Amino acid sequence: MHVQARCRLRVALTLSLASLLAACSSVGETTRNAMSAITPYKVEVVQGNFVSREQVQALQPGMSRQQVREILGTPLLTSVFHNDRWEYVFTIKRQGVQEQNRKLAVFFDGERFVRAEGDEMPSESEFVAALGKPIGKLKIPNLQATEEQLAKFPAAKNKAADTVTEETAQPQRSYPPLESR
Prior knowledge:
- By secondary structure, this protein is of the alpha+beta class.
- Helix content is about 40%, strand content about 20%.
- A hairpin with a 2-residue loop joins strand 4 and strand 5.
- The longest helix has about 35 residues, at about 1-35.
């Protein structure tokens, strides 16, 4: 009997192992199919200062470094070896959108601005338009109730309102709607 029990145990273990291996292969295939359907979230990466066409046009030869910094912001790169040049680099990486890279170099003669050269900069409105497109038309809800809708609710009793005389009453104010139609 002892030998038969060992044989049965071996057969049971072999069958269990075979069924476990078969289950693992089907789970692996299901997992691969699920993973190909799911795209992971990718973080939006923005580096540097965005410089618009309007900002570049505001630069005038002879401006001080501080005036240039007030218009363009702090440069991303300054070098000890190129003290008379500031580098403005802007990069934005977004999921599903082509990466945007723009570079601008600002040159000084001592403390005075001389020239700027680099990529063609977009205007502020062009840049905002390139960031994203609205999904469909936004539906603006009606914010005013009709008389029929108001009739469904009982009027609130206000004891203080009963004691107010015409002399102490505040005039009613009319405010414009929150959003235009």
